[in-house]
From TrEMBL:
GO terms for molecular function: anti-sigma factor antagonist activity. Residues 2-102 form the STAS domain. Transmembrane segments: none annotated. The lineage of its organism: Bacteria, Pseudomonadati, Spirochaetota, Spirochaetia, Leptospirales. Pfam families: STAS. InterPro entries: Anti-sigma_ant (IPR003658), STAS_dom (IPR002645), STAS_dom_sf (IPR036513). This is Anti-sigma factor antagonist. It comes from the Bacteria. Belongs to the anti-sigma-factor antagonist family. Signal peptide: none annotated.
Length: 102
């Protein structure tokens, strides 16, 4: 089961991802990420992967959209708390080269 929680800290929005993210989970998250990036009050988006256990290609698609949207709006996006498994997937997909990570 996949869940996420969005917390706001001043001009930063932190999305805490939890569980297993697959295709059926992504449309709502994608919409909310787009709304956050379009908001004038959000300057930085942080994706927290600490409790994410699985990610399929649709999750990678959301990340690519997120990168594109933040670049277009001249905002920051950062990925934090990547597990070794997720880091390996992102490395294969060349996402570690375009995203700031911790």
């Amino acid at each position: 089961m996949f869940q996420y929680e969005i917390k706001r800290e001043n001009e930063k929005a932190i999305i805490h991802l939890n569980g297993s993210m697959s295709l059926r989970d992504t449309p709502k998250l994608k919409t909310e990420i787009k709304e956050l990036i379009d908001s004038d009050s959000v300057k930085e988006l942080v994706l927290d992967f600490k409790h994410l256990t699985y990610l399929d290609s649709s999750g990678i698609g959301i990340l690519l959209h997120t990168y594109s949207w933040t670049k277009e709006k001249q905002k920051k996006v950062k990925m934090v708390h990547l597990s070794n498994e997720i880091r390996t997937i992102f490395g294969v997909a060349n996402l570690l080269e375009i995203f700031e990570t911790d």
